[in-house]
Structure formats: structure tokens, C-alpha cells
Write a structure and sequence with these properties.
Number of helices: 15
Oligomer: single chain
Distance between the termini: 93 Å
Length: 361
């Protein structure tokens, strides 16, 4: 077969271009370098928070919640600058069993306050998964009307396993919101029924949302929470449920009459509310105003806040001690070794703990 006939054949393969496949020369690939973050101007951020810029407020809270060591230092500098402008709000903790309608109540109540000219901040705590550690953080989507209010700020945060369903940075977040000029702070807890004293220990007024048909629960789980409540709202008091809600309200009032008041000088009471029909919300606000006046007249308002700050200080000491303990590499090895001895029956748990803290070791 001639060369010309070979080139016309379907089996003919043309010679490739010699050298680089596209004629271009290549140098060694550059290593990826992470862009260095710009230095955060704490004073500027503090000023932006002070004038009520919501984007800056969200940025400040993200800084507060960060576990990065550099961020922690910046967060404390920010708090130090904002501290003189805090303490001018009424802090309200809202809890209740899942399904009590905490989010719908907060949206209706917060929207009413915004229309009254109040500036409302909502710190909504979403439960974190015990397996993945993740949270849905869907409260903003459930509070569509409230988030549209120009003088409202809604911030969902993960509980991250904290007892009482409160993020461990909620106290500092609350102070940032106060410095931003929000005069009503609403803290929505997960409502899991665990360690509600944690919630009680950071708010002025503790509100419990309940439903009709509680039955024997009055004698059980809720009794402990009721002893901490400054007010009880029988929620979803609308439609055919109004009559039952009023009867439930009377039952709770009778129970509260026999309990020691959660706040000295204040008699806790119960109200009915329908967030759907926007009924009873103004009664809740009037109750809060009466509570604030009573607390300030008796000076217990400032006494409680001083006690809460002191308790916060001591709880942070405990957290710091735990962190410092487990960050010690030698301690980690010792803990693993003692775990093995305990699991294989060579030591009791008490003996293992004693060995861990024995100064002679």
C-alpha cells in the first residue's frame, strides 16, 4: 500500500505534535497559601454595635461564640468596651415542653412589642445533635413576621449540649444586645426540662409556657420548674380550647399559691394567651412591667443581677479548671491508663479518681 493510500485509510493515525501538548511551558505549581485575615478593629466594631448596626451585631456575636483562641481574646476586648452600655434591658427567659408553642408566642409577643416602639432581641437556642453535634437553627424561618420588624433582632444559636438548653455564651451575647440598644431580651430555651436553674440564673423574669390537659404532670416534672417561674402562660387558648385553658389557668394559680415565690416580694401568677388570635399578649407585658416595678422598688432587681454575675464568675472558674485539666498531656495519659484499670476491674471508680488527684503521684 502506497503512502498516499495509507493516509486515506481509516486506520491511519496522524503523528502528534512533538514537545509540550499545547506548546506552552509550565513552571512548578504554586503552593496554596491561606489568605491572612484582616486585623479586626475592635473599637470600630464596638462603635458599630453601639449605633445598632445589625450586621455588626451579628459579627460581634459570632466572635463571642467562636472557640478560636485569638477570637476569644478579641471577644473579651469587645465586651470590655461595651460593658458600660449594658444592663438597661429587661431579660426574659422563656421555657416550656416541646410543642408548647414557644416560637409562635415569641413571634407574636415580640412583634407586638416592636409595634409599641420597643427594640427586641431574641436569642433562640436550638438543640444540638448528641451524635453529630449539628443544629437546624430554624427559628428564624419560624418567626417570619418578627424578623421583618426593623427594630427586632433574632439570633439562633446551638445549645452544644449545654444543660438547660442555653448556649454557654448566651450571657455574653445578651450583654452585646443590650449595648446595641435592645431594651427587651427574650431567651428561648430548648425546653428539655434539664437544669432550668441555669436559665433562671441569667434572666430577670422566668416565664413558663404550658398547655391544657397537663394532668398528673403538675405533680411531677413541672413542679420543679414551676418553683422557678415568675409567671405561667397557658398557651394556645383559642377556639374550642378557651374553656379548658381558663380552667387550667385556675389550677396553676392554686398550685402557685402554695409554692414559695421564685422572686421575693412577687406573687407568681398564671395567664391565658392565644398567639394565633393575638389575645392576652398585652396582659403578659403588663405583668412584666409590674414585676419590674416591684423588683426595683424593693431593690431586689439589682440584688438578683449582682448574684447572677457572681454565680457566672464561679461557673466560669469551674469551666476553666476543667479545660485546663484536660489540656494537660500528662493528665490525658494518666486518665487513659486509669480508665483501663477501671474497665478491667483492677480499680474501682473511686480509687481511680483518688489516684488521679493524689499529690504523691
Amino acid at each position: 500500500m502506497t503512502k498516499a493510500s495509507q493516509e486515506q485509510s481509516a486506520l491511519f493515525v496522524m503523528e502528534g505534535v512533538k514537545g509540550g501538548h499545547d506548546g506552552m511551558s509550565y513552571s512548578n505549581p504554586k503552593k496554596f497559601r491561606k489568605k491572612k485575615q484582616d486585623h479586626l478593629d475592635i473599637s470600630k466594631l464596638a462603635k458599630e454595635v453601639r449605633v445598632g448596626d445589625r450586621t455588626s451585631l451579628a459579627k460581634a456575636i459570632t466572635l463571642i461564640e467562636s472557640s478560636n483562641s485569638a477570637h476569644k481574646e478579641d471577644a473579651q476586648k469587645l465586651l470590655q468596651e461595651l460593658l458600660p452600655y449594658t444592663g438597661n434591658s429587661i431579660r426574659i427567659g422563656i421555657t416550656g415542653v416541646p410543642g408548647a408553642g414557644k416560637s409562635s408566642f415569641i413571634e407574636a409577643f415580640g412583634t407586638m412589642l416592636c409595634k409599641m416602639g420597643k427594640r427586641v432581641a431574641v436569642l433562640a437556642i436550638d438543640p444540638s445533635s448528641s451524635l453529630s453535634g449539628g443544629s437546624i437553627l430554624g427559628d428564624k424561618t419560624r418567626m417570619e413576621e418578627l424578623v421583618r420588624q426593623p427594630n427586632a433582632f433574632v439570633r439562633p444559636s446551638p445549645s452544644a449540649g449545654t444543660l438547660g438548653g442555653v448556649h454557654k455564651k448566651s450571657r455574653e451575647t445578651m450583654l452585646i444586645c443590650e449595648a446595641a440598644g435592645y431594651d427587651v431580651i427574650l431567651i428561648e430555651t430548648v425546653g428539655v426540662g434539664q437544669s432550668e436553674t441555669y436559665v433562671r440564673g441569667m434572666v430577670d423574669f422566668f416565664l413558663l409556657l404550658v398547655l391544657t390537659g397537663a394532668g398528673d404532670e403538675l405533680q411531677g416534672m413541672k413542679k420543679g420548674i414551676m418553683e422557678l417561674a415568675d409567671g405561667i402562660v397557658v398557651h394556645k387558648a383559642d377556639g374550642d380550647n378557651v374553656r379548658f385553658a381558663r380552667r387550667t389557668m385556675q389550677e396553676y394559680k392554686q398550685i402557685l399559691h402554695f409554692l414559695q415565690p421564685a422572686t421575693p416580694g412577687w406573687m407568681s401568677t398564671a395567664l391565658t394567651v392565644s398567639s394565633l388570635e393575638k389575645k392576652g399578649l398585652d396582659d403578659v407585658w403588663n405583668m412584666l412591667m409590674d414585676f419590674e416595678k416591684t423588683g426595683k422598688d424593693t431593690n431586689y432587681w439589682s440584688i438578683r443581677r449582682h448574684e447572677q454575675t457572681r454565680d457566672w464568675f464561679h461557673s466560669m472558674i469551674t469551666d476553666q479548671l476543667i479545660d485546663s485539666f484536660y489540656q494537660n498531656s500528662e493528665r490525658k495519659k494518666q486518665v487513659r491508663s486509669l480508665e483501663e484499670d477501671i474497665l478491667h476491674g483492677r480499680l474501682t471508680v473511686t480509687q481511680g479518681v483518688n489516684a488521679l488527684f493524689d499529690e504523691k503521684e
